[in-house]
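Re: your question from the hallway

Yes, I did run it. Sequences:
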Amino acid sequence: MKRVFAFAVAAVMALSLVACGSKTEQPSAPATNETSDSVQVFKLGSIGPLTGGAAIYGQSVINGAKIAVDEINAAGGNIQFEFNGQDDEADGEKSVNAYNTLMDWGMQVMVGPTTTGASIAVGAQAAADRTIMLTPSASGTDVIAAGDNVFQVCFTDPNQGVGSADYIAENMAGAKVAVIYKNDDAYSQGIRDTFITESGAKGVDVVYEGTFTEDTQTDFSVQLAAAQSAGADLVFLPIYYQPASVILNQANQMGYAPTFFGVDGMDGILTMEGFDTSLAEGVMLLTPFSADAPDERTQNFVKTYQAQHGEIPNQFAADAYDGVYIMKAALEAAGCTADMSAADICEAVVAVMTQISVDGLTGQNMTWAATGEVSKAPMAVVIENGAYVLPNA
Amino acid sequence: MEFLSYLISGISLGSVYAIIALGYTMVYGIAKMLNFAHGDVIMIGGYVSFCAMFYLGLPPVVATLLAVLACTALGIIIERLAYKPLRSAPSLAVLITAIGVSYFLQNSALLIWKAAAKVYPPVIDGSAQLFDGQLKIPYISILTVFACLIIMAALSLFVSKTKMGKAMRACSEDKGAAQLMGINVDATISITFAIGSALAAIAGVLMCSAYPSLMPTTGSMPGIKAFTAAVFGGIGSIPGAFLGGLLLGIIESMAKAYISTNLANSIVFAVLIVVLLVKPAGLLGKYVPEKV
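Structure:
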């Protein structure tokens, strides 16, 4: 009896390990099944962390992309998509596996991956295979350096650091700034570097710099105490929302209330389970997308997203939504057909990417340089009553 | 003033390590095994209390009690299923089993609560202000330090004054002789695990309140640090675990503040190595010569 039980326990343990493997989204087929000669159905793949610490980003990207795909298919134009989203847990190696899975499925164009680390890994592979890659949200410069066929929807990290420093110099003159960043993370380090350079040029007073790593991102009491005693009244956080939530909580417990200034990684903090959104009141962040923008396309997108997923979409969902439309515009401009191979489509799309201009939720007249970098302006928003609003300067 | 606030965050962190280390040291002292799953029991305690507070809206005290009950039960079950069958096995086998249990708990938590980090609502908010607000001490730090002191005192009294405590000390000294004297060794070890796990639940609540990020891996790093603290203070010794935890927390904070935030962990472990070179049994540990 005892032995039987031991076997049962062992089986449960083994199962639990298996169950932790990556989850796969079911491919969603286009609404119209009859494919006449003029209607071209392309296989569109996307990759993002659907599980793991950065899951909010990946889920947003996949959900946002799916909404765009459904809209395009429902509109019944000549270009339609078959969509497949894969999980990579924000890990480079798993992301390459997800990419290979998609290639086996027959992916022709890719709107992904979501995070910078994963995109660098997949970018190298996509550049070697000649698969067109348009990442909605991986903002590192190393991502687009992989090849001429890698493009971004979001603005780059240096752009965010420069944008933040410029904004602070213009709108918060005389602020004493502390920077807390994660120095084992390319994203955080990249933004911090350009922020510091630009701050020096613009005369922004940086009084303290604190660092942390993956292993030490649970306790910031020392960094916050040091920032406080250095007299900082603005804390710049070029980091993701999870450590940021710990920082906001601990600062509150210490009774330290500076203005917190984040970048796009801060996006998602409001939807964390258990997070007291009143702590984020007055937090500023740079983002190209604001869900309360009055234009009709944004409002429709927000409404659809809320109906399907029960929450307000963040910047990542909007980037992915734009990404699908950009891909559609590029395929149209290049005159691609669905029977072309991924590599042929890639060459055709790369040739037109620098010529097209797309209006999206995250910017008007988005254009691309041959490097893959997008041109659109970052915009600062402030959190009020649990929503992003434009700051009244 | 800065120094004082760094010292306070060090003491607060150290008290959390100390409470976890007490659990490690009790189990080691009596059952002579390293329960590497201890850190993960803390994580479970954190999740249980989080669910009680966040989903059921229960007050923090009730949530803590629930977490204590759940962890005690979990501790007893783990001991029954995983460790008891290995009572006479070599200690290496038990150690590997403990690591297995640790991963089992982490992955179960991953399945139940998913990987996305949860933000733990603090059981107590705000901070005490001293010197015209120049020095602010979060109430949670004060609570942690006092909880740690009370638990240490209670444990010391329990082990030295009660009949059960006497049985525990007897088992620690010589299991065979204790059995001959009519002590139920199995039951004693089970109770040790129950107490250790109850402590883990309290540590979970306090740790998550002070460092409010809850993930399935939340317990692993503090678990390792607390184990270090227990070895540092002399494993098996209750005041040693307390002292070791406190010192470790203070060293970590000071290293972060004055040397480098990146090197803090390396410095902590370097200090451990030096202490073990000079005093192999730890600060308050008894040196027991091996009988040959």
